[in-house]
Design a protein that fits this description.
The chain contains 4 helices and 10 strands, in the order ββαβββββαββαβα. It is of the alpha+beta class.
Amino acid sequence: PIGRTCSHFRSRVVDEDGRDVPRGSEGELVMHGAGMLQGYYNNPSRTAAAFLVDADGRRWYRTGDLVVEGADGVFEFVGRRDRMVKRRGYRIELGEIEAGLYRHEGVKEAAVVAFKDAEGGVRIKAFVAMGTGQRASEIALRAFCAKALPQYMIPDAFGFLEGLPKTSTDKVDYVRLAQAG
């Protein structure tokens, strides 16, 4: 859970086309209110992409967070819109693969990155740091994923690291992982 909307903001959960989704359904969290970002300085194309304008002309900031709003108004974080890929006709939130990997008892840290392949499709690589005393085995992880994830979400490759690289704010550094390929 990531909480409720602050009293000085308004929020909605919308689909890809900006239409409200029923409470309890997954969608992107959009926000409106005083103090909200008005746009990106000298960058009209980024500003246009970052906002949804409703029929009343209200500008709603697209947070990029995929959420489900509970009956109590508390939002449950599902993933990020910018970490979604389409593969074999399926939409995949890379965070769902990470969540599946975290269910493995030996996985201490997991991060998943998508790459374009030679045919214009998507190749998925999971980077994993195993817990102390745990053995890294691609065969074992692949077998675990076959039970824990749908077939189309199983990573094509695995990379084993002592620990995942972090940004200055202690979040997983996906850029560095993508460069490591």
